[in-house]
Amino acid sequence: MTASATTDLHLAIAHHLLFLSLAGVLAFEIGAVRSNMNRDDILRVARVDIWYGILAGAIVLIGFSRAIFAAKGWAYYSVNLFFWAKLSAFALVGLLSIMPTVEFIRWRKAVSGNLTFSPAPHAIRNVRRVLFAEALLFALIPAFAAAMARGYGSLSP
């Protein structure tokens, strides 16, 4: 196995493991945000949400490293519509994730000043809606990746 093939393999493994970890964090958040959240639940979801951002950042770093330095190279990815669709879906998930993160920070601050604080039902509903929207868009990412990996969407001759 050549150094290039080994690098490609390692980057692919890291990229996929990070993606699956991010899916796990999103699933945790969907399950943890519920109407009867107590202080411990709020603090837990706020802590886990930090990992959401860390994992997303790592995915971007590894993903672009993979696109630039791995076997297929930037020339392959830069002219592929499914690559850009995948990045767009990931970016939209990231933008949607801002609202829950802001709410988790608010809730964490509120619970530190008031031990009996509980998020308002409408706030929980809104966060859950956004988390489910994230999950729906997130599900498109592997579909776009699979199409891209098989050469679909290529604009090059």
Structure overview:
The protein is mainly alpha-helical and 157 residues long. It has one domain. Helices cover 81% and strands 0% of the residues. Helix 1 runs antiparallel to helix 6 and helix 2 runs antiparallel to helix 5. The protein is elongated and about 60 Å long. The model has no long low-confidence stretch (mean pLDDT 94).
Assembly state here?
single chain
Helix content: over 70%
Largest sheet: none
Got a strand count? 0
- Shape category: elongated
What would you report as the Rg, rounded to the nearest angstrom?
Answer: 19 Å
Query: How many helices does DSSP assign?
Result: 6
Helix and strand pattern: HHHHHH
What structural class do helix, strand and pairing data support?
A: mainly alpha
Instruction: Give the number of domains.
Output: 1
Distance between the termini: 30 Å
Give the uncertain stretches in residue-range form.
none
Tell me the strand percentage band.
under 5%
Mean pLDDT: 94
